[in-house]
Amino acid sequence: MSSEHLIQKAFFDWASYQRIPGIELLHAIPNGGARHRAVAGKLKAEGVKPGVPDVSWPVARGGYIGLAIEFKSDDGKPTKEQRQRIDALQREGWCVAVCWSWEAAARLLQGYAGMLTVTVTEAK
């Protein structure tokens, strides 16, 4: 079983070798994880919100205004806050998916970039 951290790290390792236009805009959003109470308070004051996806690619493609990916471990599932955020982003024109492997996220990104034909659902 892979942790979300290891899956996301493998995805960014893969992405670092890609020659996809705009790939340099791909970034992680360090929104989760256990933090000291004081740090958590500072981050909340700075605008950190629950449910924000792990990865953002603010590049318009195929009628979408950006791509967001939420990573989950093998037995993980999106929280209520994540589901609400995913739905809200989709209503605003984002392509958003939950991925349980770095390979699924890589296929999703390639499909979004127009390099592959993929179906955007919850990618496993």
Explain what you see.
With 124 residues, this protein is α+β, with helices and mostly antiparallel strands. Helices cover 35% and strands 14% of the residues. The model has no long low-confidence stretch (mean pLDDT 90).
In terms of topology, how is this protein built?
Elements: H1 4-15, E1 27-28, H2 37-45, E2 55-57, E3 66-71, H3 80-91, E4 94-99, H4 102-112
Parallel strand pairs: 3-4
Antiparallel strand pairs: 1-2, 2-3
Helix pairs in contact: 1-4
Low-confidence stretches: none
List how many beta strands DSSP finds: 4
Q: Largest beta sheet: what is the strand line-up?
A: 1-2-3-4
Summed over residues and divided by their number, the pLDDT gives a mean of 90
Question: Keywords for this structure?
Answer:
14% strand
Concise description?
This protein has 124 residues and is of the alpha+beta class. It has four helices and four strands; from the N terminus they run H-E-H-E-E-H-E-H.
